[in-house]
Amino acid sequence: MLDLTQVLTYSAALGIAAAIPGPGMAALVARSVSGGALTGFCLLFGLILGDLTYLSFAVFGLAMIAEHFNELFQLVRWGAALYLFYLAWQFWFADHQAIEVGKPVKRKELLSAAVSGLTITLGNPKTIAFYLALLPLVINLETVSLATWGLMLVPLTVLVLLSVGALFVFGAVRIRHLLSSLRAQQRLFRGAAAIMVAAGAAMLVR
């Protein structure tokens, strides 16, 4: 099991990494403004699921797999970058509508938000770098058992990401009235698009 120092170090590192502006949080703010808190939390669910995927890969030996299947990971890297470019295109040319507070959200929109959160995280170079480069420096992964992963790392990751993400969601919802105009929404979404382009370019450069 992890000791208190490892728990605090991992929580702090993950919290800081999550709070640093990136494609995930940019999309979270944009979707929370346009769709409300429920849409934002569905996207956050997808983001967290993506983080748990990389956490699991790191704990169960993704680095070792990468050494033997480098061509496959190169393909994944290019696919992730292209997907981020596609999302950036969607955000840039999004068809905005006047915000209606209290308007019921369709189930299809909630599912779309969750899937977007998952795919954004899987293609986010910041997330990949954290779990494959920084995490081994914080925790000795060779000593992490299945019980430690399931009973400590997974709940801790969910708690930290949910706490940080909730701040972004509620903050975005509180300023919805300031972004009710179509022009303000366009600027917000295009700013998110620019961040996604930068993240996609970082994937290709690395």
Automatic annotation (TrEMBL):
A GO-annotated cellular component: plasma membrane
Membrane topology category: Multi-pass membrane protein
Domain of life (superkingdom): Bacteria
Signal peptide: none
Keyword Membrane found: yes
Record's keyword annotation contains Transmembrane helix: yes
Alphabetical UniProt keywords: Cell membrane, Membrane, Transmembrane, Transmembrane helix
Subcellular location: Cell membrane
Main subcellular location: membrane
GO MF term set: amino acid transmembrane transporter activity
PANTHER family (alphabetical): ARGININE EXPORTER PROTEIN ARGO, ARGININE EXPORTER PROTEIN ARGO-RELATED
Protein name: LysE family translocator
Species annotation: Pseudomonas weihenstephanensis
